[in-house]
Amino acid sequence: MAFFRALSRRAPVASSLSGPASTSFLGSSRGFHASRSLLVEPGDPIPDLEVLHEGSPGNKVNLAREFAQANGVIVGVPAAFSGACSQKHVPSYIQHPRLRDAGSVFVVSVNDAFVMKAWGDQLDPTHESGIRFLADPSGAFTQALNLGFDGSAIFGGMRGKRYALVVEDGKVKSVHVEPDNTGTNVSMADKVLA
């Protein structure tokens, strides 16, 4: 019990370093360090990477370049064709009355380009929504945002958390990440496009 009281008081913990930087505090949301934050934050630039695929592995998409010319939303999903992704999350964007006002909308998942194309064709057969479905086959884009999680038990490997990022002028304006990685609450279109 004393251990838990110490945690709630942010008890100092010694590390292998010496000097003033050798103490960190358990329970603090952001310790003193020079490394990147745990998750993408408002104001962060969109990663400038040539790792996303649209329709086929040869068709690369760089979202930093896409958002240099347009504002919009990146919708991250744990898995194409999964129940919550197919029945709730992505349809909440496809069917939202303010979708046209959102700008460019991209759905990104740690999947291959063929799976993402087939999934997009199933969810939006006429492509009338304008939503683009992008594969992140290696997870590099997802990892650059620090939005990956170990989904081995369910999905067979690293996956992206369920999230939505509103992007303006090439930078993240707002971040909507599901606290449990896969839920459908804070990243749904009614919360993001409101």
Question: Would you summarize the structure shown here?
Answer:
The chain has helices spanning 2-8, 63-66, 83-94, 113-123, 140-144, 152-155, 189-192, and strands at residues 12-14, 23-25, 52-54, 56-61, 72-77, 104-109, 132-135, 148-150, 158-160, 163-168, 171-177. The protein has 194 residues and is an alpha+beta fold. The longest helix is centred in the middle third of the chain and has 12 residues, at 83-94.
Quick check: average pLDDT?
83
Distance between the termini: 44 Å
- SSE order, one letter for each helix or strand: HEEEEHEHEHEHEHEEEH
The total beta strand count reads 11
Helix content: 10-25%
- Low-confidence runs: 1-36
Structural class: alpha+beta
Q: What is the radius of gyration?
A: 19 Å
| Shape summary | globular
Count of discrete alpha- or pi-helical segments spanning 4 or more residues: 7
Q: Give the amount of beta strand, in percent.
A: 25-35%
Strand order of the largest sheet: 7-6-5-10-11
Largest sheet: 5 strands, mixed
Topology:
Layout: H1 2-8, E1 12-14, E2 23-25, E3 52-54, E4 56-61, H2 63-66, E5 72-77, H3 83-94, E6 104-109, H4 113-123, E7 132-135, H5 140-144, E8 148-150, H6 152-155, E9 158-160, E10 163-168, E11 171-177, H7 189-192
How does this model look, in words?
The protein is of the alpha+beta class and 194 residues long. 24% of the residues lie in helices and 26% in strands. It contains 7 helices and 11 strands. The strands form 4 sheets. The protein has a 5-stranded mixed sheet with strand order 7-6-5-10-11. The longest helix has 12 residues, at 83-94. The radius of gyration is 19 Å and the shape is globular. The N and C termini lie far apart (44 Å). Mean pLDDT is 83; it is low at 1-36.
